[in-house]
Amino acid sequence: MGTMPDSREMTPSCHATISMGNRPTCTRPLPTSSARIVGESGWFRTRKAITARHSNSTPTSRTQMRVAGPAATPFASSSRSGSSVAKSPTPRAMHPVTVNHVVRVMTPRCLRHGGRSMTSPGHRARGAVRYARAMTGQLFPALLRYWRQRRGLSQLELSLETDVSARHISYLESNRARPGEEMVLRLLSVLGAPLRAQNQALVAAGYEPRFAEPALEALAPEIDAAIAQMMRQHEPFPLVALSLDGTLVRSNEAATRVFSAFLAEPQAMPATPDMFSLLFDPRLLRPFVVDWETLARGMTFRLHRERLLTGDARLNDTLERVLAYPGVPKAWRQPDFSQDPQPLVRVELAREGLRVAFLVTVTVFSAPQQVTLDELRIESCFPLDDQTREVCLQLARR
Length: 398
Fold this sequence. Notes:
- This protein is of the alpha+beta class.
- It folds into three domains: about 5-110, no CATH class; about 120-205, lambda repressor-like DNA-binding domains (434 Repressor (Amino-terminal Domain)); about 215-395, Beta-Lactamase (2-Layer Sandwich).
- It contains 13 helices and twelve strands.
- A five-stranded antiparallel beta sheet has the order 9-8-12-11-10. The protein has a three-stranded mixed beta sheet with strand order 2-1-5, with no helix packed on it.
- Helix 3 (about 155-160) crosses helix 4 (about 165-175), helix 5 runs antiparallel to helix 6 and helix 10 runs antiparallel to helix 11 (about 315-325).
- It is elongated.
């Protein structure tokens, strides 16, 4: 039992019986192209089969090796220090089975790469980078396809608009080509994507954002001074600065005076007010808005258009919140494209003999090269009659 059998006794079937020190002996089938070795760390698949060659015959493709005890094993696995070649005598008819034949690298084949273990920290880091690049490569094609389909353009139509071949656009959308930074900006600009979406596309393509996104308080001093001057010069009439989702980011004193006079429950004013809550919340301006349904309907469809044009996720939340207010018809859940967007909005408020009527205009910054300014809306209220003018002047004298 302690020596190898003669080659003439070998059968086509192949088994390896290997002792593991104090563990019971186990028998496993030995495949033709590989062998399994049990040790302290488990079963490992070798890259080459354990084959024994007869000195006077052709190499056999299937062998049977019977090993009864630790002294006769061609390698020892009972020690945690690793494998070693056994020193027991081997028949001259068989070549000795060495560690080189059995285990070239003691890692599973599925975890080998370039002779290094894929479980090492360095390889895990490189794998994470490759995975991130693969995910990044998939994100830009999806964004490009999304904005092209949102604008209703085919690849050929987009190629004519951007002076880029339709084949290259097809390669970009199928992730067979990587766009340059200027190519990303050219495509997204022609598609009319807002600056925030262009920043997202640049990051998806593996570049740094091009357009800054500072807080309104951190804008350039000259821009901040220009906004402040607009607010002062518009007194005693309301003027507010809104973000894309309608959040009130800045207002002049006249806006505070006039709108506070028409609040149903002043204590219900949220800490961060927005124009949609002021208009739709029954505890705020809504009870005193003349022809509320017409104004609210126009504001809702304006929100629909902004959401479809920009694709901003914040507008989805705002729209859901607006549609959840009581008294909002279910028909408003779908955009109405039969109505043209109105550049001017008429707002009339009336409460116990106090009445004001304003024409509201919206001002935006052209080519600001900043996300914050690109999304900023300046809404100015101009009096429609002398009565409104007089009310605003009286409120300013208090």
